[in-house]
């Protein structure tokens, strides 16, 4: 089937085609009951149960498609959104300063709006230097060579440093004294191979940089995966519906339901321990003086909460996983 000709009337939703965000993004789509089958080697998949087409794109390109309004919705890293928006802004500024009338990427750009943090893909874009080297603070790298895949964020960062040091006359790559070298991957190898004095690259566990003999000296951006939308989506109601479903899945993943019985004398203390998202549900038990409480609790806090409930005399404490939610 020629899928490209079946996109009419469908909301386009961009999903990372590979890499770190792919699996978690697919899990979210499944949780939101977005049903599709991706044919081998095809980067478009029609959704069976909703008027949506999924477009599988490199995570770094998704802000371009969404920002220009070609695709209405996307899942990508906040770092890629920041890089794209910074690039557009810098192109606009350069153009305005030069008085040029040649169209640039920024002309088609309406902008991306972040709908929500998706809670996975946490990483930091950091300035890294060789452990056994002469650089210990970011300003030591002014006028040096910097390797990165995030050229616009790096340019902005060093423009700011140069300004603070009283070296540069303003922003923009042409005025920068520090040399930003664009690399598309394995950025951590650049220092050891003599291409760069320092790098600006993503770090999660820190293992890659440690193995490459590098150490962080600053963080440029902290990132997680985000759901973004274009300024003028083709079907705003469907965007809201999908956002609501995805929010429900994320909440379900983040919380558990805690149920227990406690004596009415301890009700105030118990409610302090499990205040719930809105408020706990409290029901009377058939047994005189006792109540049954059920409340949503953040998964990461549940062990401590159970300890504290036990201390106030709670009994029959049960913790249940939540399959899905729609909460206020
Ligand atoms: N080590 C990491 N830990 C967690 N998230 C990361 C990590 N590296 C990257 N990310 C996140 O995942 C996004 C996609 O990066 P990833 O390297 O997986 O993409 P990719 O499309 O495979 O790109 P490339 O081919 O350049 O590696 C990044 O923009 C960032 O938000
Ligand atoms: O802190 P860590 O958990 O070790 O992760 C950091 C590494 O992950 C990313 O690279 P990726 O594996 O995507 O490879 P690439 O940059 O060479 O494409 C990033 O560019 C670092 O190299």
From TrEMBL:
GO cellular component, as recorded: cytoplasm
EC numbers on record: 2.4.2.17
Region (Disordered) location: 82-109
SUPFAM superfamilies: GlnB-like, Periplasmic binding protein-like II
Keywords, comma-separated and alphabetical: Amino-acid biosynthesis, ATP-binding, Cytoplasm, Glycosyltransferase, Histidine biosynthesis, Nucleotide-binding, Transferase
Biological process according to GO: L-histidine biosynthetic process
Reactions this protein catalyses: 1-(5-phospho-beta-D-ribosyl)-ATP + diphosphate = 5-phospho-alpha-D-ribose 1-diphosphate + ATP
GO molecular function, one term: magnesium ion binding
EC main group: transferase
Highest taxon listed in the record's lineage: Eukaryota
Bias type Basic and acidic residues, positions: 82-97
NCBIfam families assigned: hisG (TIGR00070), HisG_C-term (TIGR03455)
Protein name: ATP phosphoribosyltransferase
UniProt source species: Amylocarpus encephaloides
